[in-house]
Amino acid sequence: MKLFSFQPFVAPKFVYKILDRSETHNCIPFDPRTPTHTPKGLYGCVHYGVMIPNLPAPFNFLNLLTVVGQPKVKLFRNEHLIKTKAIDTANVLIGTAVGTQDHFRGYSVKNDCKLAKDGSSLKFGNDLLLEGKYPNFHAKRQGHDFIFDLKIRATDKFADFLHINFELYNHWALLCEYEGYLEYQGKKTEIKGLCTYEYARAVNINMDIKSFTYHILNIDEKTQVLMVEAIGLLNWVYQRRVYVRSVDDHGAIYSKEFKFNVTKFEPERKITPNGLSMRLPQTFDWSVCDDNGQPLISIVGLANGDFQYGMAGGYAGSYQYKGTFKGKAIDGTGYIEYLDTRR
User: Fold this and answer.
1) Pfam families under this entry (predicted)?
2) In terms of residue numbers, what domain contains 149?
3) Which domain CATH number covers 261?
4) Count of domains forming the chain
């Protein structure tokens, strides 16, 4: 059963190629010279992130999602955090299912943060330290009920989500291997597996995005699948893609017969701190075919009810999934980001 179906408008393929060069940047090795700077010049907003799906209970997932400088995109902006200027305002989500009270905070970049200009050391108050240069990164949080220490090593496999012409907006995600521990209320859990290290930079222009969802599944110890759907005004499709990559394969991107359907929502609407109203999914499904029109991946998801606010202006959480990938049965705990003001 499909709820609140919206008929998407997909422009001719040449239109996307004129606006966005990301398709030509995928399936090739990551360039170590790729910049990861903090806001400068025309770039008034940047994003750094580490996302980990498929963690054991009670955590389910972990995301370290930082935004430095508030974007003009209303759906992603945290207006309520701005005390001085948008470019002086950072926010950090330490998202996991245990949902501690201090999981989301805002900061003055000038007064509360120590950020190296090249992005090699990022300290947000006493809440999060992200440091390192490609391919070795380190994430640490101490002095809280929920703490962690993670070593992250990036591969040269990356997904280029968006690369708008004239360098107006770039967003990419490295496939990484991590190892370390999480500790909650004194109990330590050793973890290791696949994660992403992400970076985005944007010239501060507004894009009228109405809906956005992003999923990460670790299919096995080497293979990761990413799904993205972004919808704008009048249901204009900005992107509907599935990215497949593995530790030893650059993989490919797929969009043929893409489908994402929410089949049941949480009973109560969410009102964000910025006054946006949205409904969060309880059950949903998504799928895509390969270039030959054969089913590539088909997923049925059941949300774990652990959505945390702070994924920019929306929510992040996890879900249990079952489905098929390249004809084989799969299951696990996926990561989801979700915002939708259309419903």
Assistant:
1) DUF6670
2) 13-340
3) 2.40.370.10
4) 1
